[in-house]
What does this fold into?
Amino acid sequence: MRAFAALTFSVLLYAVLSLGANTVSAAGLSLEDRAKLETLRTGDMTKLVVHPKPRDRIAEDFRDQYGNAINLADFEGKIVVLNFWATWCPPCRYEMPGIDRLAGELGGNDLAVIALSTDRFDIDRVIDFFAEIETQHLGVYQDRRGDLARRAGALGLPVTLILDREGREIARVTGEAEWDSPETKALLQELIAMTAPGA
It folds into this structure.
């Protein structure tokens, strides 16, 4: 009887601990991590709004320059900087070279930078603009029907979402920013470190 009670207690304890672990994961960043990010919200990153909890994943597809369907789930495991922009938007055009440089400097196994055009025109306009400003690191992506932008609540441009490694929005910047500034890179590097597996 005593052995059965001990076994039952062990099972219950494991279940509680597992539930607690899942709750922490679902809650996103810890209070300590959020506090760290707050101290790094300087320069243009004062525009960054860190959400109290992660928002639901966005399932809508978008397209690459070849017409292939792309999904944010394809980038799972990485922090994602998802920038909604358009070729007709002057602030978007202004910040795009910095976004390209950010992709070159921090893009890789831990961070993906996606510049997602919401242009309703043919994607050739996006390709031509990237050629004009000589981007080196950005892929050509388009949300031509605006499905993903609407789902994300990107009502004005530019809007940039920061997604965690599970594809959930944890923060956003409304308006243009210097995406390759030291302040921005420091904040993103801290976010990469605090969300690294085993961190």
In short: The first strand starts at residue 49 and ends at 50. The first helix runs from residue 2 to 27.
